[in-house]
Predict the structure.
Amino acid sequence: MTSVSHTHPLVFTFGILGNLVSFMVFIAPVPTFYRIVKKKSSEGFHSLPYVVGLFSAMLWIYYAMVKTNVTLLITINSFGCIAETIYVAIYFTYATKKARMKTLGLVLLLNFGVFGLILFLTQILCQGTKRAEVIGWICMAFSITVFVAPLSIMGRVIRTKSVEFMPFNLSVALTVSAVMWFLYGLLLKDVYVAVPNIPGMILGVLQMILYEIYRNSKSNNVATEKELPTVVKVDQEQPTKVNCEVYPVNISSLYSENGEGKDAKNLEDSQIYSQA
């Protein structure tokens, strides 16, 4: 298959569609950060997905600038850089001191240290098309590595037989995004854009299949089906008499207290960054 120009109508169409879907994926964490700002607390969420997302966007912008004919990668990843920077800044503002130091260390290591090293070495050691190839391999390897996160979520779904923490809409969005960018890279004969989205498409389809298998599972209603803790009310007039009234306890609040729900939410957020 011969490559076509980046201005070709089909390439432009798939690039625009990829931008639109990726835009929706990038703004998916907005409700999470709205809650953080409102409560003035990071609530135990982790900054790693957002730091990784920022690093990924930086890498793709660098690749697109060197390659020169993948302009639509620059547009969406520029927005991604802005969005992820805002997320990290908000997290840093409301996190605990320990979490702040950890986030600062991650940013310095990944976004300054590793990215700076890649930038320096590729500028010094590589010239012309060779530079684009090296950066492309780095981008491709990193993008494929990030797909480990959805695999962990899928494993959780299989173990628990519950799709509670694998939102169907997000799985669909990620799959559509992978398809659009795969076709964009395929038409341009850009293996570095096309190849990382192949596992993205496969994993996205598998997630939707798992959702279909387990969406009606009783485990999805485990929070409501669990035996509710019983609060025994003592009759005030007759202390020795026990009034056996049962009061339901909000299970979701218990999850919030022990952090289980937050860990699962972070698993969900980590899916966002498994796109090119």
